[in-house]
């Protein structure tokens, strides 16, 4: 049962992130998946040494600019917007799904530190 549930969750998530919706979000912001990864690692409230960031991305050191901060916020907002399939579920089903997902261990690092999505996940733990 756990394996099937995981496959269903992973399949749905991968489909959403690889589908045209998220690709369109990235393209609309002039970003690539590599940009998304970099923005997900940076937190304007908790700066990292550039070397640590560069090591995480296997690249030269860089810094998050004011434009990067705004772009990161727009991207996080778009990525955390629930897909239509979840919006169509009834409240009881969503509450049950949320309750079960909250039982899972929280990730060691929020995917988008400093965003509403990571704050919600932190409260859920």
Q: How would you portray this structure in words?
A:
The protein is mainly α. It has one domain (22-124). The chain is built from 8 helices and no strands. It has helices at 2-18, 20-28, 33-41, 50-57, 66-80, 84-87, 91-102, 116-124. The longest helix is centred in the first third of the chain and has 17 residues, at 2-18. The protein is globular, with a radius of gyration of 16 Å. It starts with a helix and ends with a helix.
Please state roughly what percent of the residues sit in beta strands, choosing from under 5%, 5-15%, 15-25%, 25-35%, 35-45% or over 45%: under 5%
Number of domain units: 1
Overall residue-averaged pLDDT value: 76
Shape: globular
- The structure class reads mainly alpha
> What string gives the helices and strands in order?
HHHHHHHH
- Segments where pLDDT lies below 50 for 5+ residues? 116-125
Question: For the terminal residues, how far apart are their CA atoms?
Answer: 23 Å
Strand count, sense and closure of the main sheet? none
Keyphrases for this structure?
125 residues, mainly alpha
Give a concise summary.
The chain is mainly alpha-helical and 125 residues long.
List the helices and strands and how they pair.
Blueprint: H1 2-18, H2 20-28, H3 33-41, H4 50-57, H5 66-80, H6 84-87, H7 91-102, H8 116-124
């Amino acid at each position: 049962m756990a394996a099937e549930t995981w496959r269903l969750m992973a399949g749905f998530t991968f489909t959403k992130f690889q589908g045209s919706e998220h690709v369109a979000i990235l393209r609309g912001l002039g970003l690539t998946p590599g940009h998304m990864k970099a923005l997900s690692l940076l937190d304007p409230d908790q700066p990292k040494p550039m070397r640590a960031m560069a090591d995480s991305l296997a690249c030269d050191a860089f810094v998050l600019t004011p434009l990067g901060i705004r772009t990161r916020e727009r991207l996080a907002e778009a990525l955390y917007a629930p897909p239509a399939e979840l919006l169509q579920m009834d409240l009881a089903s969503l509450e049950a799904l949320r309750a079960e997902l909250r039982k899972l261990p929280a990730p060691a690092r929020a995917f988008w530190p400093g965003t509403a999505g990571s704050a919600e996940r932190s409260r859920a733990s």
